[in-house]
Automatic annotation (TrEMBL):
Protein name: DNA protection during starvation protein 2
Compositionally biased residues, Low complexity: 40-53
Keyword terms, alphabetized: Signal
GO MF assignments: ferric iron binding
PANTHER family, alphabetized: DNA PROTECTION DURING STARVATION PROTEIN (PTHR42932:SF3), GENERAL STRESS PROTEIN 20U (PTHR42932)
InterPro entries reported for this sequence: DPS_DNA-bd (IPR002177), Ferritin-like (IPR012347), Ferritin-like_SF (IPR009078), Ferritin_DPS_dom (IPR008331)
Gene: dps
Amino acid sequence: MKNIILTSALLLGTALAGGAGAQSAGMGVPSTNVNAAASTSGQASAQSTGTASPLPYNRATTLPSSGTTDLNKSVAALQNTLTELQALQLQTKQAHWNVSGTLWYTLHELLQDHYEGISKYADDVAERQLAVGASSDGRAITIVAASRLPEIPGGFLDDAQVISFLTYQYETVGQRIYQRIGDVEKVDPTTANLLQEVEHAIEKYQWQMRAFLQNTPTDPNTGADLNNGRPVPLRGK
Ligand SMILES: [Fe+2]
């Protein structure tokens, strides 16, 4: 039995090391083919440039360079954003199905767009978390326990209720992501850029909800600019 386990372990080690090309690496921690090729071609390896992952089999990945504390900042920013996006996925679908009232069809269609956009960004954020070397937690229990967002009411939903509820949700999530961009922009600009993209979309969705509620700045009868050319102020900005 022991021999079978030992043989399996050796085979697994060879596979992780990248096959025949890495067998010469010896009995220590297996190196990757990527690093082996870099050292013979004269190019800087991940090890020599200080960009190496603390994880043994992830050395070729570009990671935040300043160490474990900064990597933890990226993981926290990404995981919290993922959890909130997943909550919004559920809530936009719930509203898409149950909205009623004069604006039901407009909101039904718009919320399908929002759901699809949010789903794409949730996937991008989860997979960025894998790219920096952490697992992603997309479990239902995590969404309930950690999103810190009000739950959408059950049953049929009045159109005005959907508009004010999602305006608030998008505003809250947008502000949280905005803060996280600041947390990681120095140590992990790639994650910061992704969060900017997500925040940009959430602000757009917030505008698309808010626009149902806000007064038009132009008088529809006279054409006069009632708001004097000033933008409508956003809460929290
Ligand atoms: Fe649908």
